[in-house]
From TrEMBL:
It is found in: Cell membrane. The chain crosses the membrane at residues 13-36, 285-305. One of its GO terms (cellular component) is plasma membrane. Keywords: Cell membrane, Kinase, Membrane, Phosphoprotein, Transferase, Transmembrane, Transmembrane helix. Pfam families: HAMP, HATPase_c, His_kinase. It is a multi-pass membrane protein. This is Putative HAMP domain-containing sensor. PANTHER family: SENSOR HISTIDINE KINASE YPDA (PTHR34220). The keyword Cell membrane applies. One of its GO terms (molecular function) is phosphorelay sensor kinase activity. The keyword Calcium does not apply.
Length: 587
C-alpha cells in the first residue's frame, strides 16, 4: 500500500489541483450566497416601504375621522337648542321638553351615521338628570360615565380616552365660573370591531398582523387575539429599536416589524410579518441555491476522485517505484492497462529497470567479484606473517623441554590456524575475531611475558554480533609487537579496548613503543588515504578491506597516544543503532 506523510500530501500535485478547483468555485458559491442575501434584503426593504406607506395612510385616515368627530362634538357643544334646553329645562312644559329631547336625539343619530367608526354618541346633562344616546335614546343620567369623562380633560392626555376596553372622545360644556360642574358632556364611543376590521385591511397577507399602540403604551388595539403574544414582545423591545424597521423574537420565531408614529393622534401603528414569510418568495431561489451548492460539492468530489485516480495515484505509484529502486529493488515491474501518458512513463520505467539490471550484471556484480577475490588475496597475504614467529616460539619451547607448555602452545596454535585457514565464510562475528586475536596475544606472551604487559579488555555485548572480515585485529596486534614493543629496552605495554556509539563501533590498539615517529605516523596516514593497487600488505590491507566492506567513515585511523606510542583505531560503521558503550581505560 502506498502511504505518504501529511506534509507530502499537502505539497503534492493532487492537493494543488484540488486547492485550485476550490479557489475557482468558492467565488461562485460566495456570489450565489450574496445574490440570495441581496434578494432577501431588497424584498425586506420593499416590504417595509409598502408596509410603512399603508400604515401612514391608515393613520392619516384615522386622524381625519377623529377630526370630523371632534368637529361634530364641537357643533353639538355649541348647539343653541341644547344650551337652551339645559338652562330653561325647569320652565319648559312637558311637551316642549319632549320635543327638545327628540330633536337632540335625532341630531345625535345623524352624527353617528356620518362615520362607521362611531359606535355611539351620548350627551350627559346633569342639570336635567338625563343621558341622551343615539343608541339607547333618553335615559337617566349615567353618573359613572359622566363622572369619568368629566375628570379626563384636566389630565392633558391624548385625544383618545381608554375606558372599559374601548376608545372614546369627550368634550365638556363648562359654566361661566371656574370650579363649577359642567353644564353637559358630549361623549363619542368608537366602534372597536370597526377599528379591528380596518387594521385587518392593512395586512399584507394572512400571516401578518397590525395594531395600534398609544403613547406610554396605555392601551393597544390589535387586529385579532392571535397577535397578543407578538404585541407583548413588541412592547418589550420597541423602545430599544433604533429605526422604524426591526426584528422581534417571539415564541421561537423572528418577526419583521414596521411602525409609523402620529404625533397628532399620540398613536403608533405597527405591522408585523414572520421572517419566514418574507423569505418565502425566495424559496425557489433558495432551493436552486442549495441545489447549486450540492452540485458544486458533488463536482468537487468527482473531480477530486478523478484527479486522485487518474493523476495522483499513478504519480504515487511512480514515485514509490523510484523510492524502491533507490533502495536497490530492481526486480519490480509496474502494471498499467490504459494506454495513456502514464502507460508510456511506466513502460519506459520498466525498460530502464531492465537496462539497469543488465548493467549491474555486467559491471556491478563483476566489481563485487573482483572485490571478493581481492579480499581473499589480502587474507592470503596476511596469513604467512604469523607462521614464522610461531615456529620460532615452538623451537624455543622444545629446546627448553617444557612439555606442558609445548602442549598448550600447539593446542593454541592449532586453534589459531584452524580459524585463519577455514574457507566457509569471509566474514565472522566480532566476538570470534576478538577470541582469535586474544589467542594470538596469549601465544605471544610465551615469548614476551617478562618484558611486555598486556591489557585486553572484554568485548561489550553490544558489539559481539557485528559481522567483520576475518583477520582485521590480529595483524595490527602483531604489528605492535614487531615494530613497537619487541626491541624495547624498558617494559612494554599493549592495550586493546572497545567503544561503540550509535552505529559506529571502535576497536582501539595502542602501545608505548618508540619505534615510530610523528612524521612516520603522518606518512602512514597519507598512505592509508591514497592507497595504490600495488601496495596491499600490512595496515593498508586491513584498511582497504574494512573500507570496501563498510564504506565511508570506516577503516583505520592512526595517531600518537598518551604513552608516546602508536594508537590505531578500527572504526566500523555497521548501520545498527546501539547505546554508547565506552571502554574504561580508552582515552
Amino acid at each position: 500500500m502506498i502511504t505518504f506523510s501529511s506534509r507530502t500530501l499537502r505539497s503534492s500535485i493532487f492537493a494543488r489541483l484540488l486547492f485550485t478547483y476550490v479557489i475557482v468555485i468558492a467565488p461562485i458559491l460566495a456570489l450565489g450566497g450574496y445574490l440570495y442575501q441581496w434578494s432577501y434584503t431588497n424584498a425586506s426593504e420593499e416590504l417595509s416601504r409598502t408596509s410603512i406607506t399603508r400604515l401612514s395612510h391608515y393613520l392619516q385616515d384615522l386622524n381625519r375621522e377623529l377630526s370630523w368627530m371632534e368637529l361634530q362634538q364641537f357643533d353639538i357643544l355649541e348647539d343653541p337648542d341644547l344650551n337652551k334646553l339645559t338652562v330653561t329645562w325647569e320652565r319648559m312644559d312637558p311637551v316642549d321638553r319632549r320635543a327638545s329631547l327628540n330633536d337632540l336625539l335625532q341630531r345625535l343619530t345623524s352624527v353617528k351615521n356620518t362615520s362607521a367608526y362611531i359606535k355611539d354618541i351620548s350627551v350627559h346633562i346633569p342639570y336635567v338628570n338625563k343621558t341622551i344616546s343615539a343608541v339607547h335614546a333618553v335615559d337617566e343620567l349615567d353618573q359613572e360615565r359622566f363622572g369619568w369623562f368629566r375628570s379626563q380633560p384636566g389630565r392633558n392626555e391624548s385625544r383618545l380616552i381608554w375606558w372599559r376596553d374601548s376608545l372614546h372622545l369627550s368634550a365638556l360644556k363648562q359654566r361661566g365660573k371656574k370650579g363649577e360642574e359642567p353644564l353637559f358632556a358630549v361623549q363619542i364611543e368608537l366602534d372597536m370591531e370597526k377599528l379591528r376590521e380596518s387594521l385587518l385591511q392593512i395586512r399584507m397577507n394572512p400571516e401578518s398582523g397590525s395594531f395600534l399602540v398609544s403613547d406610554g403604551a396605555r392601551f393597544t388595539v390589535t387586529s385579532g387575539q392571535e397577535a397578543a403574544s407578538v404585541v407583548q414582545s413588541y412592547l418589550r423591545e420597541a423602545r430599544a429599536a433604533s429605526s422604524d424597521t426591526f426584528y422581534v423574537h417571539s415564541e421561537g420565531k423572528n418577526y419583521h416589524f414596521d411602525r409609523v408614529y402620529s404625533a397628532a393622534l399620540g398613536l403608533s401603528a405597527a405591522a408585523y410579518l414572520p421572517e419566514e414569510a418574507v423569505r418565502r418568495p425566495l424559496s425557489r431561489f433558495y432551493t436552486w441555491a442549495w441545489l447549486f451548492v450540492f452540485t458544486s460539492l458533488v463536482a468537487v468530489a468527482i473531480y477530486s476522485f478523478s484527479t486522485y485516480r487518474y493523476v495522483h495515484k499513478p504519480l504515487l505509484i511512480l514515485v514509490k517505484s523510484f523510492k524502491r529502486m533507490e533502495e536497490g529493488e530492481l526486480d519490480m515491474q509496474i502494471e498499467h492497462e490504459p494506454k495513456d501518458e502514464f502507460g508510456y512513463l511506466y513502460h519506459r520505467f520498466n525498460q530502464m529497470l531492465l537496462k539497469l539490471q543488465a548493467l549491474i550484471d555486467q559491471d556491478y556484480k563483476q566489481k563485487l567479484m573482483m572485490q571478493k577475490a581481492e579480499l581473499k588475496q589480502l587474507q592470503s597475504q596476511i596469513n604467512p606473517h604469523f607462521l614464522y614467529n610461531s615456529f620460532f616460539i615452538l623451537h624455543s619451547l622444545s629446546r627448553s623441554g617444557d612439555i606442558e607448555r609445548i602442549e598448550q602452545f600447539t593446542h593454541m596454535l592449532g586453534e589459531y590456524f584452524r580459524f585463519i585457514t577455514r574457507n566457509g565464510e569471509d566474514h565472522v562475528s566480532l566476538s570470534e575475531e576478538i577470541r582469535h586475536s586474544r589467542m594470538y596475544t596469549d601465544i605471544q606472551q610465551f615469548r614476551f611475558s617478562r618484558r611486555i604487559r598486556v591489557q585486553f579488555d572484554e568485548l561489550p555485548e553490544a558489539m559481539e554480533q557485528i559481522r567483520v572480515p576475518r583477520l582485521i585485529l590480529q595483524p595490527i596486534i602483531e604489528n605492535a609487537y614487531e615494530h613497537g614493543l619487541e626491541e624495547m629496552d624498558e617494559e612494554g605495554f599493549l592495550r586493546v579496548c572497545f567503544e561503540t556509539h550509535g552505529n559506529e563501533a571502535r576497536i582501539i590498539v595502542e602501545d608505548n613503543g618508540d619505534g615510530i615517529t610523528p612524521a612516520e605516523i603522518e606518512a602512514l596516514k597519507q598512505r592509508l588515504v591514497h592507497t595504490s593497487e600495488s601496495e596491499m600488505t600490512g595496515m593498508i590491507n586491513i584498511h582497504r578491506r574494512i573500507h570496501l566492506t563498510y564504506g565511508e567513515g570506516s577503516g583505520l585511523f592512526l595517531s600518537q597516544n598518551g604513552l608516546k606510542g602508536l594508537r590505531v583505531e578500527i572504526r566500523i560503521m555497521h548501520g545498527e543503532e546501539g547505546p554508547y558503550v565506552p571502554a574504561a581505560d580508552c582515552g
